[in-house]
Design brief:
Number of strands of chain B: 0
Oligomer: heterodimer
Mean pLDDT of chain B: 84
Strand content of chain A: under 5%
Largest sheet of chain B: none
Shape of chain B: elongated
Number of strands of chain A: 0
Number of domains of chain B: 2
Helix content of chain A: over 70%
Largest sheet of chain A: none
Mean pLDDT of chain A: 82
Strand content of chain B: under 5%
CATH topology of the largest domain in chain B: Arc Repressor Mutant, subunit A
Radius of gyration of chain B: 19 Å
Distance between the termini of chain B: 48 Å
Order of helices and strands of chain B: HHHHHHHHH
Radius of gyration of chain A: 38 Å
Number of helices of chain B: 9
Structural class of chain A: mainly alpha
Helix content of chain B: 55-70%
Low-confidence stretches of chain A: none
Low-confidence stretches of chain B: none
Chain lengths: 99, 192
């Protein structure tokens, strides 16, 4: 803007300056509302946190069960024979040679 | 800010679950946030809702506050960002013509730019409405920048600290904003 227009713009701003001033204290009821919302958000955060922990523990539990099943199946299939478990045990106890 | 509190102690108390500390922090920050919201948003916006939103953001992000700079600086930046986001969401940057002004706004415009007469203090509201209409033609960041310079009289260094913009970028922007405002004013000067 030219200097003259700069001055006019500043005049206009100066005229409206009072409407830009902030308030020094919250209006009636603002504090109560804000604190209530703050409390609510904290509660929601806690609930979300609790849900997250539950989800993590549930996932860990599922992982442990899946791992146990996998290991058991793996061990069972690696026994190196195709006999029923009872017969296999009998063969082991009696030390029978199976060809 | 007139009222000063032991910010570090208050934050500590708040983190320990003391709600009265939150009340003290809100009372302490309210004038600052109110000033920023009123400066950067057009009149008639929902000020209280926005102040509350900024306070909520402040409390939810307090753990990110390192304490290296004053809390007021940190909150100012947060408040400014929130206001700019709000302005960006409006996405209104209309061109204004003389016919868009109310009779009162046109009177204020003529008195300031054409007649050169002085106006009564009661015209403040109409002047503000006219300022808002002129500023509405700018980008949100430009609107905030010109007000920080021309209304608040803040230095380029201060603005750089608050916004994170470089000094040369600010100067360049100011040049462009002034040129854009001049064009808008020239359009308004055409009475017919």
């Amino acid at each position: 803007m030219s200097t003259n227009q700069d001055n006019k713009w500043e005049e206009l701003l100066a005229l409206s300056a009072s409407t830009f001033a902030g308030e020094s204290a919250p209006p009636y009821g603002f504090m109560t509302r804000t604190l209530a919302q703050l409390r609510q958000e904290q509660q929601e955060d806690r609930q979300v946190g609790w849900l997250c922990w539950r989800a993590i523990f549930a996932s860990l539990g599922a992982l442990v069960v899946a791992a146990s099943v996998t290991i058991s199946v793996h061990n069972y299939s690696n026994r190196g024979d195709d006999m029923e478990p009872g017969i296999g045990r009998f063969i082991q106890v009696e030390n029978i040679q199976v060809s | 800010m007139d009222q000063s509190i032991d910010v570090a102690r208050c934050l500590q108390r708040w983190q320990q679950g003391d709600e009265s500390a939150a009340e003290e922090i809100i009372t302490y920050l309210y004038p600052l946030i109110s000033k920023i919201v009123r400066l950067h948003l057009p009149r008639r916006e929902q000020e209280e809702d926005l102040i509350q939103e900024i306070l909520m953001k402040t409390f939810s992000r307090l753990h990110q506050y390192k304490g290296t700079a004053p809390l007021t600086h940190w909150v100012s930046r947060l408040a400014l960002t929130t206001c700019l986001d709000k302005l960006r969401a409006q996405k209104i940057r209309p061109e204004i013509r003389r016919t868009d002004l109310t009779p009162e706004e046109a009177d204020v415009f003529d008195a300031t730019w054409l007649d050169g007469s002085t106006r009564a203090a009661t015209d403040a509201i109409h002047a503000r409405d006219l300022v808002d209409k002129l500023l509405a033609t700018l980008k949100p960041e430009d609107r905030s920048l010109i007000l920080m310079v021309d209304l608040e009289g803040r230095s380029l260094e201060e603005i750089s600290e608050t916004t994170g913009w470089g000094i040369s970028k600010i100067k360049m922007r100011l040049f462009r904003i002034r040129s854009q405002l001049r064009k808008t004013i020239q359009t308004l000067e055409q009475r017919s």
